[in-house]
Amino acid sequence: MNKPNIVVLGAGYGGIMTTIKLQKLIGDNEADITLVNKHDYHYQTTWLHENAAGTLHHDRTRISINDVVDFKRVNFVQDTVESIDPSNKKVVLEDGELTYDYLVIGLGFESATFGIEGLQEHAFSINSINSARLIRDHIEYNFAQYNNEEGDRQDLITIVVGGAGFTGIEFVGEIANRVPELCQEYDVEASKVRVINVEAGPTALAGFDEELVEYAMNRLEEKGVEFRLGTMLKKCTEDGIIVEKDDEQEEIKTRNIIWAAGVRGNSIVEDSGFEVSRGRVPVRDDLRTPDYDDVFVVGDCAVIFNEETERPYPPTAQIAMQMADTVGHNLKQLLNDGEDFESFKPDIKGTVASLGHTDAIGVVFDEKKLYGRSASIMKKVIDNRYLVKLGGVGLLLKKGKLDMYH
Ligand code: FAD
Ligand code: NAD
């Protein structure tokens, strides 16, 4: 008898943790497991802002899939998913096709561009190892270029970040630490460099604890970051950006535009005909799609709602990992004609955002506020716990943030 084939798409937090759960839970004779990913490595998206700023090498962030997944148990396919055909249980890859009995979609997020003119062409976004190292090299090149150009080329050493959500703030925190190093390396006067964070809303980190937001903004301003709140980025050009505040438009000249103003689910999912809400699949309680009993969605491609607020939970690595446990359990039930399906309930343990390597803000365990060094240590503890969960103490020793004070 043919064994059922479980195919997992994407080796981000959701996909890789589902695969690891399945390789533990599902016997060799119960099902085949296939994992498809664009690269032969998994990366910790939550560290990409550091790679993009150049404060952490990307090899610390990426982890060979072979090191954490058992290739004797799991068939790994390095390829790019182009589309999914759920009616025919088929996945179209750049280099072939796969059929499945059960599918887990974990293809992650992409930047939401809101149709802003020139954004695709002129802005960078932090969404993969490749995009992060491009940002790092681009900024460094412009600093190097500065003293090779005639006239005042302030645009080369002006860095604009669109969006003061967690990604924008974390990136700004890292780049503020990196600027002094860049200035020293390329003989640029530090006082000339501008780091501008443009946020459409009235505050940074909307909805987060106000005291902590104020702390974060003060600390970043002390390091030279200029906040432009209530200011909408309207257009990007080769020379810079156009922003609008109170119906007044202004041009900011810059060659370094980093767009960190929101994410949506991978558009492959929507383009494949799955029901989506703002690019993400409104999954059932058991994490299956509304229309297909054999398709699960984990991580940023899925949207789940907070029953109390009736608003969607923000997509996070924390939730993606928890979803992997539920999907693993429910797939085991499906394979064995079981009925003990688990309903997914996120268990939010807190939120901690870094402001550079030694500073952070956070709310953890029942609303306990943390800031400064203690929040920064907490962030590293969270990151290190993930590494242990993924690949044990060996992986922690190889990739972990073990020096808590730097
Ligand atoms: P991802 O982690 O995005 O993984 C998707 C995977 O799919 C990748 O391996 C990718 O290569 C692969 N893939 C994509 N397209 C294809 C394709 N077509 N074919 C094959 N493979 C493909 N959340 C937190 O909880 N805490 C944090 O501190 C935090 N910090 C963050 C910092 C930054 C800078 C950013 C950008 C996000 C942060 N988040 C954080 C959010 C978190 O990173 C995401 O919610 C999480 O990565 C979602 O996991 P995922 O598995 O859905 O997708
Ligand atoms: P976000 O949606 O949280 O924030 C985007 C920000 O961009 C908003 O403040 C919005 O007002 C602003 N914005 C939108 N359009 C704009 C425009 N045209 N001009 C200026 N500003 C504009 O997105 P994000 O920061 O990319 O985060 C994505 C997800 O990843 C979230 O769920 C977040 O919680 C998660 N994340 C978590 C952490 C952490 O826990 N440390 C870190 C990074 C990201």
From TrEMBL:
Residues 5-324 form the FAD/NAD(P)-binding domain. This is NAD(P)/FAD-dependent oxidoreductase. InterPro entries: FAD/NAD-bd_sf, FAD/NAD-binding_dom, NADH-Q_oxidoreductase. Belongs to the NADH dehydrogenase family. Keywords: FAD, Flavoprotein, Oxidoreductase. It comes from the Bacteria. The keyword Glycoprotein does not apply. The keyword Oxidoreductase applies.
